[in-house]
């Protein structure tokens, strides 16, 4: 690891000020991602700003009937939050299998949402790809079995690593961010394509309303591993009929992948096995796998189907 | 894959090198330090008190050990040099790959007739990658041509049961396909074609006994007919190993305070060799294990060979037994006059030395040793024939579930039938079986060195993408150890790791009806095989 200066910020304002630096400064939360990158010489910041003590660690109800979650909240505290669990069960389902107990005890909501790609070319010092200022993506002609099957127009073909991002997008969350230009709120779905020069302080969850939610993850190993594909669905119901829904897939695209075809296939339909199968089929209709990851297409289809069945309360496996 | 990476701490005192190395052979390691550094072997002392796994990859000092020694010399200070995880993946060897094309013949009543195989394997640049094939079963006619393929990638190294898991897998999946061809139950088919029963060939008995215990009668024919995406299946596999003992030397001291110290220049890979030394000496001397101090893992102690090929228990136990008997005889000779009897009439048991058949006529161990005065017992001894042998057999059963919509395999339970001659210590023997099976679950499902096809670089030299089973991936493991005291001690480190992957692969085929002739059983292979099956072929 390269030597760096360390700043322990204690307020949002301090943190923003410390990050405004003539050189590379990076925020440090739980460190599960950043420190590993520094040890592997993937990032060599000159200044590291600890934001854990600067940002909110708690969750609180909002006046609109929703919740706001502080960026410094640990994944384990989110996981064990009874009210959030009741109102937003898919968030808990997504948090449950993140990494290992150690990672969930150390990792934070803000760090989880802002973690960098796990692409093995990106994480390997020897490969200087687009993401590291190079001139190509090694995954295209190389080993891409865990890369994207949607949104594959490039330049990068990573899958977004955050498990929490997917249910946040599905519940229609907004993120509060602060930067040298002040604070603002952005839709979760937009956040992941923005330049990352602002600090995320809160996740704002709207009141869910009359919805049914479902979540399903396909994992190769039972723990200490990344999902092959997963899905959150949040369905606004009118009796037994789906009025409208959000279907968001994870581990399949460079961003949490909202599937319009699947959402269209659900709208106006009864919530049953036939609808789930049709929506799942629709979801993968726009898949564009790479040379070595076509197997992820049926896996993604299964994740969508089972997430919908899960929302319907139908036992899947 | 060793959790403790390769490495050493080296320190010089003048021209004397002391190296604390994570090694499976202290003496062998010292010899290679001496050769490579051009110094007399008597100037090198290698110490290995505890180590975090070697599995065949840790005998020599290697480049990192020699660099460590040279740096220590230059720095004139102790130097510690442990490889990091990436270096460990790139520099310390792999189990060589194996690939085969096989044709085989079988009669309608299930007798194997012929094996005709071509095989390839790569051990990196210029290394041998051969393995036993066909494995275990009796093919009356056989032909096999093997070709080593040299590639510009990290060198092969011995890895727990070198060659056997490869040969076992290629043969055992063939056995299940042949059994299906002639419509015979796989256990029955194997019994028809296994070598006849012998002390080192207990397969037929293990197939029968294991099938009963495992509930094999509940196994459905190939392809789980149950509705729904989760399919269950059972599989079986058999294996063999050699083991056997050789040239260990040992030393025993008994002093007038009753203390017993046993010294042996073997090393404990984490298998429990220290425990074994203590147990054998304590039992021989009629003492509790707490009364015996075992000193091992140091080239200052009597020579013992490297710990490879599951030979350590069979080398060390006889040496300790023989040397401890020698020490006890010497003690009897000194104590007999005090008790007014001949040495041959004495026994040592329950912490006392007494006249055979008359426990009242005797002395507590400590009181007996007081008579040694200023002249302790100090004896050397060595391994001898008759207390160990070679050749073990085992059979394993596996039950799995396969999610045919995702290709994910989960292992439900494993049953291992295994022998290793005389079981010196049940706890450590069973530990070897657990460890072997867990390592083989990695071989079956997870471990895969992925080389970038364009640059040849390994893309997963870390524990994030080089997958290893965690607690939640490990099933219930039942072990039946067959104690065969009449055979003496035989090793058990390697045999239990041979069969597991084959039994799992056969269980996956039994569950899905789809044939996957490749490891690890990654979802992409499972899904591809299911697709192929739907299209009507295997
Ligand atoms: C084997 C393994 C398996 C894993 N499996 C999963 C999984 O299944 N799902 C999953 O979601 N994760 C998984 N993880 C990743 C883990 O959850 C994340 O690394 C962790 O959540 C990061 O949180 P942190 O607080 O430690 O972040 P840090 O390492 O502190 O920060 C991560 C990044 O975000 C930036 N950052 C931190 N806080 C902010 C902020 N407030 N605003 C803007 N940028 C910020 C940092 O500069 C850094 O670049 C896995 C990790 C491993 C090693
Ligand atoms: S997908 Fe391509 S560009 Fe993106 S991080 Fe990996 S190698 Fe780099």
Give the SSE map.
The complex is a heterodimer of chains A (317) and B (538).
Chain A: E1 5-8, H1 12-19, E2 25-28, H2 34-39, E3 47-50, E4 59-61, E5 67-70, H3 75-79, H4 82-87, H5 89-96, H6 101-106, H7 109-114, H8 165-170, E6 174-179, E7 182-187, H9 188-191, E8 199-205, E9 211-219, E10 227-238, E11 241-250, E12 257-258, H10 260-266, H11 273-284, H12 296-312
Parallel strand pairs in A: 1-3, 2-3
Antiparallel strand pairs in A: 4-5, 5-8, 6-7, 6-8, 9-10, 10-11, 11-12
Helix pairs in contact in A: 10-11, 11-12
Chain B: E1 7-13, E2 16-21, H1 26-37, E3 44-47, H2 62-75, E4 79-82, H3 85-91, E5 99-106, E6 112-121, E7 141-148, H4 164-181, H5 186-193, H6 203-214, E8 230-241, E9 249-254, E10 260-264, H7 273-285, E11 292-296, H8 312-339, E12 346-349, E13 352-355, E14 358-364, H9 365-370, E15 377-382, E16 392-403, E17 408-419, H10 426-446, E18 476-482, H11 500-512, H12 523-534
Q: What would you say about this model in short?
A:
The complex is a heterodimer of chains A (317) and B (538). In chain A, 29% of the residues lie in helices and 22% in strands.
Describe the overall structure:
The complex is a heterodimer of chains A (317) and B (538). Chain A has 317 residues and is of the alpha+beta class. Among the domains of chain A are: 59-113 and 161-205, Uridine Diphospho-n-acetylenolpyruvylglucosamine Reductase, domain 3, CATH 3.30.465.10; 211-312, Enolase-like, domain 1. Chain A is built from twelve helices and twelve strands. Chain A has helices at 12-19, 34-39, 75-79, 82-87, 89-96, 101-106, 109-114, 165-170, 188-191, 260-266, 273-284, 296-312, and strands at residues 5-8, 25-28, 47-50, 59-61, 67-70, 174-179, 182-187, 199-205, 211-219, 227-238, 241-250, 257-258. A five-stranded antiparallel β-sheet of chain A has the order 4-5-8-6-7. In chain A, helix 10 packs antiparallel against helix 11 (273-284) and helix 11 (273-284) packs antiparallel against helix 12. Chain A is globular. The model of chain A has no long low-confidence stretch (mean pLDDT 96). In chain B, the strands form five sheets. Chain B has a four-stranded mixed β-sheet. A four-stranded mixed β-sheet of chain B has the order 8-16-17-18, with helices on both faces. Chain B has a four-stranded mixed β-sheet with strand order 11-10-9-15. Chain B contains twelve helices and 18 strands. The radius of gyration of chain B is 26 Å and the shape is globular. Chain B has three domains: 7-91, Aldehyde oxidase/xanthine dehydrogenase, molybdopterin binding domain (Aldehyde Oxidoreductase, domain 4); 99-242 and 389-534, Aldehyde oxidase/xanthine dehydrogenase, molybdopterin binding domain (Aldehyde Oxidoreductase, domain 4); 249-382, Aldehyde oxidase/xanthine dehydrogenase, molybdopterin binding domain (Aldehyde Oxidoreductase, domain 4, 2-Layer Sandwich), CATH 3.30.365.10. Classes of the chains: A alpha+beta (317), B alpha+beta (538). The interface between A and B is medium-sized, with 30 and 33 residues. The complex binds flavin-adenine dinucleotide and iron/sulfur cluster (SF4).
């Amino acid at each position: 690891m390269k030597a760096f200066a360390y700043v322990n910020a204690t307020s949002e304002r301090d943190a923003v000020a410390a990050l405004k630096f003539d050189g590379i400064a990076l925020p440090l939360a739980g460190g599960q991602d950043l420190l590993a990158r520094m040890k592997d010489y993937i990032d060599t910041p000159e200044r590291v700003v600890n934001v854990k003590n600067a940002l909110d660690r708690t969750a609180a109800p909002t006046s609109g009937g929703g919740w706001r979650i502080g960026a410094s909240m640990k994944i384990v505290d989110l996981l064990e939050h009874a009210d959030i669990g009741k109102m937003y069960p898919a968030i808990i389902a997504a948090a449950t299998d993140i990494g290992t107990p150690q990672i969930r005890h150390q990792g934070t909501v803000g760090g989880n949402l802002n973690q960098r790609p796990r692409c093995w070319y990106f994480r390997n010092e020897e490969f200087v790809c687009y993401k590291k200022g190079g001139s190509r993506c090694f995954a295209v002609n190389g080993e891409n079995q865990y890369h994207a099957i949607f949104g594959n127009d490039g330049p990068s073909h990573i899958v977004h690593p955050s498990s929490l991002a997917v249910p946040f997008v599905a519940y229609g969350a907004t993120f509060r961010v602060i930067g040298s230009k002040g604070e603002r709120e952005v839709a979760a779905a937009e956040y992941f394509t923005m330049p990352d020069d602002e600090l995320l302080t809160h996740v704002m969850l709207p009141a869910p309303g009359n919805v049914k939610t479902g979540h399903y993850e396909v994992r190769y190993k039972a723990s200490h591993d990344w999902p092959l594909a997963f899905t959150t669905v949040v369905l606004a119901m009118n009796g037994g009929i789906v009025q409208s829904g959000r279907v968001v897939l994870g581990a399949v695209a460079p961003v949490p992948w909202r599937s319009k075809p699947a959402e269209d296939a659900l709208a106006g339909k009864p919530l049953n096995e036939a609808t789930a199968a049709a929506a799942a089929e629709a979801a993968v209709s726009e898949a564009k796998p790479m040379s070595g990851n076509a197997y992820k297409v049926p896996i993604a289809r299964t994740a969508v189907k089972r997430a919908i069945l899960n929302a319907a309360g139908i036992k899947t496996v | 894959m060793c959790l403790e990476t390769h490495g050493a701490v080296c320190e010089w005192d003048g021209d004397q090198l002391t190296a604390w190395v994570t090694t499976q052979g202290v003496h062998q390691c010292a010899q290679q330090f001496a050769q490579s550094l051009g110094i007399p072997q008597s100037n090198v002392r290698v110490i290995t008190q505890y180590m975090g796994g070697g599995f065949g990859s840790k005998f020599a000092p290697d480049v990192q050990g020699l660099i460590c020694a040279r740096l220590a010399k230059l720095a004139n200070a102790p130097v510690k040099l442990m490889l990091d995880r990436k270096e460990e993946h790139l520099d310390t060897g792999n189990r060589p790959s194996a690939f085969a094309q096989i044709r085989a013949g079988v009669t309608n009543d299930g007798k194997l007739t012929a094996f005709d195989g071509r095989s390839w394997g790569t051990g990196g640049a210029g290394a041998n990658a051969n393995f036993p094939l066909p494995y275990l079963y009796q093919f009356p006619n056989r032909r096999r041509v093997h070709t080593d393929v040299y590639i510009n990638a990290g060198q092969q190294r011995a890895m727990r049961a070198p060659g056997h898991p490869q040969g076992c897998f290629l043969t055992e999946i063939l056995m299940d396909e042949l059994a299906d061809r002639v419509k015979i139950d796989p256990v029955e088919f194997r019994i028809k074609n296994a070598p006849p029963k012998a002390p080192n060939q207990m397969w037929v008995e293990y197939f029968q006994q294991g099938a009963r215990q495992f509930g094999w009668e509940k196994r459905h024919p190939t392809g789980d007919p149950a509705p729904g995406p989760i399919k269950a299946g059972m599989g079986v596999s058999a294996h063999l190993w050699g083991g056997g003992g050789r040239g260990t030397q040992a030393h025993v001291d008994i002093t007038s305070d009753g203390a017993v110290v046993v010294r042996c220049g073997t090393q404990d890979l984490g298998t429990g060799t220290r425990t074994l030394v203590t147990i054998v000496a304590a039992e021989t001397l009629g003492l509790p294990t707490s009364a015996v101090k075992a000193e091992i893992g140091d080239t200052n102690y009597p020579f013992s060979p490297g710990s490879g090929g599951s030979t350590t228990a069979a080398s060390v136990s006889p040496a300790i037994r023989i040397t401890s008997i020698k020490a006890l005889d010497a003690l009897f000779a000194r104590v007999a006059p005090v008790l007014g009897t001949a040495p041959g009439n004495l026994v040592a048991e329950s912490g006392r030395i007494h006249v055979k058949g008359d426990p009242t006529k005797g002395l507590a161990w400590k009181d007996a040793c007081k008579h040694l005065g200023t002249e302790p017992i100090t004896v050397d001894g060595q391994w001898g024939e008759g207390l160990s042998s070679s050749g073990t057999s085992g059979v394993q059963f596996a039950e799995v579930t396969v999610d045919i919509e995702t290709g994910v395999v989960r292992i439900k339970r494993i049953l291992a039938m295994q022998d290793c001659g005389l079981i010196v210590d049940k706890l450590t023997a069973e530990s070897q079986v657990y460890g072997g099976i867990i390592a083989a679950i990695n071989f079956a499902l997870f471990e895969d060195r992925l080389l970038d096809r364009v640059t040849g670089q390994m893309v997963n030299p870390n524990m994030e993408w080089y997958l290893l089973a965690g607690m939640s991936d490990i099933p219930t493991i039942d072990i039946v150890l067959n104690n065969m005291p009449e055979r003496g001690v035989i090793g058990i480190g390697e045999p239990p790791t041979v069969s597991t992957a084959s039994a799992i692969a056969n269980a996956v085929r039994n569950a899905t009806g789809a044939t996957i002739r490749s490891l690890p059983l990654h979802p992409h292979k499972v899904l591809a095989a299911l697709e192929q099956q739907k299209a009507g072929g295997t």
